[in-house]
Amino acid sequence: MNLKHAALLLGLLSVAPPSLAADTTLYLSPKGSDQADGLAPRTPLATLQRAMDIAYQTGKAEKAAHVRILVEEGEYRGQATRVGSPPAGTHVEVAAAESARNKPVFDGAGKADTWFTLAGPTQAGATFTVRGLEIRNYRTAISLDGNRSKRDAYITGGTLRDLTLRDIGQIAMPDKPLSTAAIRLVNARRITIADNTFIRIRNIQQCAPLHAIYLAHHASDNRITGNTFDDLCGSPIRIRDASNRNQASGNTFKRAEYHSVFDEWYCDRSVNPKCTKASGECPSWGNIYSDNKVEQSNPDAMARPTSVRVQRVPPGCVPDAAGKGD
């Protein structure tokens, strides 16, 4: 290569667009410190909240396309993380470190209510992944909180994969109020929930309100595939209020006590004064339950696993209107 061509190449590299910035990896360890920079295995962070804060700062400042948080094997007690959308165009991934022989464990230890909360709306091109972890002893494991009253303020672009969710619900905090979900999606769309294991998803006082996966208020076009549900006392998958075209396939349900494993419902203000959504709720349409197994469970759920509890369709609730923008 002559000097002229070399200089030209260096010039092109120096003006490479920010979108091509190098990916970033952060490290988390039970022995870490939030005073560390988290940029190397020898200087790990201690809490997922701090790691997420740095990941977001990095994604925004450096326009990194992919920020990974690698979680070292071990136990992380009492942690709770709350964030908004990842920066525009950034994929934030939380995953077990490649060196981990066993899944890293986040244990609420009876002190933390929800392990991971992500609030919407999602910024353009932002995505997130959480995989390869065990979450136990929380009232709720994961809550994706879009705005239930503003249809366009939604969460999207997420993957929850290969997680073990154990002892989730009021069982983890008996003195606290009822839990409603292990994984909650409110106005969250096109989320993949795949290859996870749910074990002992239970309330102490009342089981019916608790669901392993709760899709509510315009939570549409989500995919629930290849999961195993074992020892649950409420409806494993609940769909509510204009949450359309969701699909549950290839899942296995064991020791499910409720009379169905996949059901639809909405709060009808004309008959229930406790409904809280000011604009009212609608039934859901186009949801698919296929190729699942129900074993060692409530005989009704084994004979007829799906249930649609809709007595009437309120004025203004029609499939096109409910699905518009979803």
From TrEMBL:
- The residues forming the signal peptide are none
Membrane spanning segments where? none
Domain annotation Periplasmic copper-binding protein NosD beta helix: ranges? 129-258
Q: Where is this region: Disordered?
A: 296-326
InterPro entries on file: NosD_dom (IPR007742), PbH1 (IPR006626), Pectin_lyas_fold (IPR012334), Pectin_lyase_fold/virulence (IPR011050)
| Protein name, per record | Periplasmic copper-binding protein NosD beta helix domain-containing protein
Report the source organism: plant metagenome
